[in-house]
Amino acid sequence: MAQYHEPVEKLDEMTMNITRAINSLKEELEAVDWYNQRVAATNDPELKGIMAHNRDEEIEHACMTIEWLRRNMDKWDDELRTYLFVEGSILEAEEAGDSDSQQLSGLSIGDLK
Hints:
- By secondary structure, the protein is mostly helical.
- The chain contains four helices and no strands.
- The radius of gyration is 20 Å and the shape is flat.
């Protein structure tokens, strides 16, 4: 299958399920983009409402898939906890997450000034 980059016989079921989820997520995000463009392009208010509804349904599907990945693939939980629902700069959230993980692992190098 073209979706796998390694021989299928070497992949376990969880790895194949993760591939399925990631491919589905890509498809959902693509659909969000398409519907969003249609919402922006149409002048018909009823069609605009229908397309916005469809877009929002695809966002729901994408979020459900992200949650499945968070529960089933290493690192998703850590990264989502670092970046989602934080106030301020995303870059500052990354820096805070990096220093937290360094301190937790005992690798903090302290002030470099």
